[in-house]
Predict the structure.
Amino acid sequence: MKTEERIIVALDFPAKDEVFQLLDRVPGLAYVKVGMELFYSEGPNLVSMLKDRGLKVFVDLKIHDIPSTAYKTIKVLGRLGCDMVDVHCAGGLEMMLKARDALIGDTKLIGVTQLTSIDQQLMNNQLWIRGSLEDCVLHYAALAKEARLHGVVCSPREAAMIKKHLGKGFLAVTPGVRPPGSTAGDQRRMMTPGEAIKAGSDYLVIGRPITASPDPKLAFAQILAEIEVVA
């Protein structure tokens, strides 16, 4: 895998015009993420447009529904030529198994463990999930591996644990990555790009530090240089 493909740039924009302005400014991008806001605004045709530009595309809709609906949804997304799609591990083993059965071609399916905006207190007191956050993440990740998913979404702080218990080939896709000096925003479990790669992250999902930068090309290049040192 090329180093630039390890940086999945989150296209957190409301419309495609801003997306293509960014792509024109940062020609070195190789992998992008289309989240709910953009997908619901522009629809599936946007995925085809991004693929036509030679980009890999992670469609991040965090599917969490009954097994039959998850199956049908992943089947539809697979037909778009997505390189990666995701489901919530909290949907359970049967839902993940059905989603896995729906995969088409080389599309990778990963499971969301706990969002990087969630910390220990929030998980215990609001989500009413007992135990430690790390134990919950590992339990969900183990279920995802049992369901034959390709990996999970977790914070970079849990990447080493995932690799230790579930194997180096089980993907750790990590948002919650912020270059030194960046604002945290709504992220709570963070690392820098270099720290995340050292911890075992396979892919870094990074949005605002690149997309909201006055010079996104430079911001991307600096992150790329940081991870090349440790990759």
